[in-house]
Design brief:
Blueprint (H helix, E strand, L loop, with lengths): L2 E5 L8 E5 L7 H11 L8 E5 L5 H8 L3 E6 L2 H13 L4 E5 L11 E6 L27 H13 E12 L4 H10 L3 E11 L2 H5 L1 H6 L8 E10 L2
Helix pairs in contact: 1-2, 4-5
Bound molecules: S-adenosylmethionine (SAM).
The site of S-adenosylmethionine (SAM) has 24 residues, from helix 1, helix 2 and strand 4.
Length: 228
Amino acid sequence: MPSATVGCPTPADPRRCVVPRGVYAPQADTRRLRRALHREPITDRTHVLDLGTGSGALAVEAARLGGRVTAVDISWRAVAAAWLNGVLNGQSLRVRHGDLASAVPGRRFHLVLANPPYVPAPGAAPPRGPARAWDAGPDGRLLIDRVCDSAPAVLHPTGALLLVHSHLCGVDATLARLTEAGLRAEVVDRTRLPFGPVLRSRLGWLRERGLVNGETTEELVVIRGRRS
Ligand SMILES: C[S@@+](CC[C@H](N)C(=O)[O-])C[C@H]1O[C@@H](n2cnc3c(N)ncnc32)[C@H](O)[C@@H]1O
């Protein structure tokens, strides 16, 4: 598996993070979630679930902060990368292959991290290949809605979910979905940044759908949902 080594999860970070081809390299959304993770009270009794772990950058960070971390991804390459990055950084991770929370049946966590695919994408067919890390159906909510709906079942009674996505797929929709699922939800971080290459490549389609007008920036939003 050809690989590139980059800072994990920021270029200034001396820790090692191997990102094989086809695995999502830590980006601005990873970094926003990492900032939010640092605001959580984590001890050696905190069980953390990283849904869609990719390179494992956030899982490694949560373990470094003291948490007992389980990382899940549907991509075998990502599973291998997360495991390897745990080893390279001296952190013990449980890495599971599977579809979101179904990979950890019956388990509950104090903190659930999710940077799911959220980019609106043309076509109804499930994405294949590397695009599976970002494409998420015509409204971008294919995975987000599932994460919201399944959160109560994987959260400890005092647990919290941290979820990052673009404003393009609907912040209010996520807040409403989490509320419907029985969580108290709020936006805890927002940052605006220029469209990346994937959004730029489908600007025409995004305009046709009314998701984008003249703007060339998107807002990344971190939402926190808690059970109590
Ligand atoms: C945007 S990337 C985030 C990677 C990493 N957490 C980060 O912040 O850098 C989304 C990840 O979700 C994974 N993924 C997509 N669909 C999934 C599913 N149904 N179950 C588990 N993981 C999934 C992708 O393989 C990809 O690694």
